Amino acid sequence: MSSLDAARASANRLYCPIVFKLAARLEQLTWADFILDPIDMAAALRNAQTALGGNLLVNWFDTWSECETLGAPIVRDPAGNLIAIAPPPSGVSDPLTILKSELLPKLKDLAIRLNSDRRSGTLVAGFVTGMSTLARRIGGPQAANLAIQWAIELIRAYGEIGLDSFIIAEEEPGIGAFYSDFAKELQPIFNLSRYYSRPLIVLNRRPAEDDQLKLAAAGFICDNTPARMLIIAGGSRLGTIRLIPEELLDSPSQQSNEMLNSMLAGIDDGRQIFITSWETPVDIEPERLAELGRRLRSAG
Q: In order of start, what are the domains of the chain with their CATH numbers?
C-alpha cells in the first residue's frame, strides 16, 4: 500500500470504542461523582476520547438507569458495576412521566453538550436501553409498551438535537421472542430512524437462537459474532458499520493481527466505522485501546 493509499484508508476508518464508565476511571472519579454533574461528565468523556484516539462519543451507557429512576434498590461498586439488583417497586404510577421528568433531561443535556463541542471526525451517538431489556426488568402488563414509548421519546430527542446515530443496548436475551410481532410493534422506532436519516444500531449482548431470523425479517441487517449481534436499521449515511471482535481488545498477538487483517481484507475505499460490541471494560488498559485504534487505521 502506498503512503497516499495508507493515509486515505486511515482517514476513512473511524475507530469507535464505546467508552463510558472507563471515562470515569481515567479521571479518577467514582460512579457517584461521575454522574453528578453533566459538565464534568462531558469533559471526562471528551478527555477519554482524546486519550484513546477514538472517533465516538456516547452520551450514556447503562441499562439499569431507568430501573434506578423508578425506585429500584440497586447497589453499585465505586466504578458503577452492579453488586446487587432488584426490580422497581410494583404499582409505580405513570412510570413514563417519571422517566421523562427525571432521566430524560440528564440524557438530553449530555447529548447537547457532546454534540455542540466536538472535534473534527467525531461521531456522537445517543444511548437507549433496549426495549426488551427494560420491559423484562420492569415487568407488568404494560411494560412492553412503556419500553417502546420510552425509546421513542429518546430517539426523537436525539434526532432533534442532531446526533449521528442511535445505539440501542439489549442486555437481556430473546428480543425477537419478547415481541411477538417485532416488525409491527417497533415500526414507530424504525420510522423515526428513517425520518432523521440516522442509523439505528442494536447491540444484542445475549442473542437467542431465533433472534437473527426474526430481526432480519423485520428489516435489520445482522452481523453475528460468537457472543454479540450488531443490527442496523434505517440505513446509514455515515458509512459501513462493522463490529470489532472482542478478541481484538486483548493484547496484540499473531492471532489478533491475523484476525484484524482478515477483517480489513476486501474492504473498499468508502468510510468504515468500527464499533465495539458493548461498552469497553472499565478495567481495560487504556493504552491497549489506543494501540488497537492505531493498528486498525494502519493495517491492510
A: 3-298 (3.20.20.210)
